[in-house]
Amino acid sequence: MLTGIVTLSLTLLAAPRPVILDVDPGIDDALAILLAVRSPELDVRAVTVVFGNVELDLGVSNALKLLELAGRTDIPVGRGEAAPLVGEALTAKNVHGENGIGNVILPEPKAKLYEGGALRLIADTLAASSEPVTLLPVGPLTNIALFLKVHPELRPKIREIVSMGGTAAAPGTVRPTVSFNILNDPEAASIVYRSGIPVTMVGLDVTSKTVLTPERVARFVGSSDPIERFVAAVIAFHRNVRGAEGAVVHDPLAVGSVIDPSFVTTELLPVDVELRGELTRGQMVVDRRAEATWRTGAVKSTRVALDVDADRFLSFLLERLSSKSH
């Protein structure tokens, strides 16, 4: 009898965590999707798409293609928002290629979109879940902010929000102290970070240290496995077309931190979003002082990733993307 109880307990502990991915694919989003669906620790219940690295329609097409590449057309895909709450959308095709995935051509997908759209898909997924679900947005936070506004009754079904974006101390990407994802919709980020839901910020302080180089994926070149060939091609794009050392795998690290939190070191801190500064709009204001006093009612509400075991994470990522592990 005792053996049965122990076995049951181990089974419960090993149960995969239900997650919803919110993406703007995007090379690093593509790798994040592949990592998530190839990790038994996660139960990817849905994928929703937002504008960002590419225009929304292209991002939706990329998400469908990537799930088909991974053999996971069972995962529903919801079309989300095409523009931020305020202002105009930015894209990053200079980083990701004209098609968003390093100009790699994937077959047209056979799977169809979830008819109700992203907000309905999130709502239906949460309502149907017997346990709280982790939201994993790795693009602008527009879909998530609107969902929180439209469906406040479902907030208790959200376990936490793990967001890729922002920076506490590292240099920004599009402005000196501002990251692309947050600048693309600061108002949405403000709604999410002030929501009272537990949030983990996986930002440039850690993601900028995780660079996947062509040398690391050399064994994938010419592989008979389509995922390995895709990974090798998009990493080569960064070197051959952009002249970069490799691909900074921002979004996969956010996914990896849910699979194994020990990849990153976090500190619980007050975080808010600057909405008005001419040079600092979209900056994540992270107060690391002993006493947080910059705004009334500031609380230590956000887990901010401040350090990363980059080499261990990159090895883990390649192991999960390798055909030999499946």
SS elements, strand count: 12
Q: Give me the CATH fold name.
A: Inosine-uridine Nucleoside N-ribohydrolase, Chain A
CATH class: Alpha Beta
Number of domains: 1
Low-confidence regions: 6-12
SS summary, helix count: 12
Helix content: 25-40%
Class per helix and strand makeup: alpha/beta
Global morphology:
globular
Q: Assign the CATH superfamily.
A: Ribonucleoside hydrolase-like
N-to-C span: 34 Å
| Main beta sheet | 8 strands, mixed
What would a concise description of this structure say?
The protein is an alpha/beta fold and 326 residues long.
What topology does this entry show?
Elements: H1 2-13, E1 17-23, H2 27-37, E2 42-49, H3 56-69, E3 77-79, H4 93-96, H5 117-128, E4 133-137, H6 142-150, E5 158-164, H7 180-183, H8 186-193, E6 199-202, H9 204-207, E7 211-212, H10 226-240, E8 247-248, H11 250-259, E9 264-269, E10 271-273, E11 284-286, E12 302-308, H12 310-321
Parallel strand pairs: 1-2, 1-4, 2-3, 4-5, 5-6, 6-12
Antiparallel strand pairs: 7-8, 9-12, 10-11
Helix pairs in contact: 2-3, 2-11, 5-6, 6-8
What do these coordinates show?
- The protein has 326 residues and is of the alpha/beta class.
- The chain has one domain: Alpha-Beta Complex (Inosine-uridine Nucleoside N-ribohydrolase, Chain A).
- The protein is 35% helix and 17% strand.
- It is built from 12 helices and 12 strands.
- It has helices at 2-13, 27-37, 56-69, 93-96, 117-128, 142-150, 180-183, 186-193, 204-207, 226-240, 250-259, 310-321, and strands at 17-23, 42-49, 77-79, 133-137, 158-164, 199-202, 211-212, 247-248, 264-269, 271-273, 284-286, 302-308.
- It has an 8-stranded mixed β-sheet, with helices on both faces. A two-stranded antiparallel ribbon has the order 7-8.
- The longest helix is centred in the C-terminal third of the chain and has 15 residues, at 226-240.
- The radius of gyration is 19 Å and the shape is globular.
- The two termini are 34 Å apart.
